[in-house]
Amino acid sequence: MNDRTVYQSISRKHLITVAPDASVFQAACVMTRSQSGSVLILDEEGGPIGIFTERDLLTKVVAKSLDPASTPVLAVMTRNPFTVPPEMSVCDAVQLMKERRFRHLPIVAPGGKVVGMFSFRDASPREVIDADDMAAHMDEVTDVLA
């Protein structure tokens, strides 16, 4: 099994962020320019207050006929996103993402500062297979103990 951490695996070390007062249109433009499926919204100390994803754009803006130019990202972002520590294994992160249906996980260091964004595509095919194997094993254990 591979022991890479989420921080070691991220391909993009710089964060894709927008200010809390940015419009959805501005956030979508930043995501498009950076070829990223998400953008983080951070507080003054660099801690995550929200994440805005392609899914949020589709389900909270487009499907509700909101105007992207006048809708603040703060109104439609996912607040208090689930975060992981830098030392979490990729296998554990992939398993978590599959269980909770996430595609992006902010990596937060002790002290609360975001140091990166783990994306499902940062995992190798082997790590995805290992996560699936681990999930299947946990299901078997749960069945035995039930």
Name the average pLDDT: 88
Major β-sheet strand ordering: 1-2-3-4
The span between the termini is 27 Å
Helix percentage: 40-55%
CATH topology (level 3) name: CBS-domain
CATH H-level superfamily title: CBS-domain
The tally of structural domains comes to 1
- What characterizes the major β-sheet? 4 strands, mixed
Class from secondary-structure proportions: alpha+beta
CATH architecture descriptor name = Roll
SSE run: HEHEEHHEHEEH
Number of beta strands: 6
The parts where pLDDT drops under 50 for at least 5 residues are: none
* CATH class category name: Alpha Beta
Please state the CA-atom Rg, rounded to the nearest Å.
17 Å
What is the 3D shape?
globular
Describe this entry's structure for a reader:
By secondary structure, the protein is an alpha+beta fold. 41% of the residues lie in helices and 18% in strands. It has helices at 6-9, 24-34, 54-62, 73-76, 90-100, 125-145, and strands at 17-18, 38-42, 48-53, 78-79, 104-108, 114-119. It has a single domain, classed as CBS-domain (Roll), CATH 3.10.580.10. The chain is built from six helices and six strands; from the N terminus they run αβαββααβαββα. α5 (90-100) packs across α6 (125-145). It starts with 5 loop residues before the first helix and ends with a helix. It is globular and about 55 Å long.
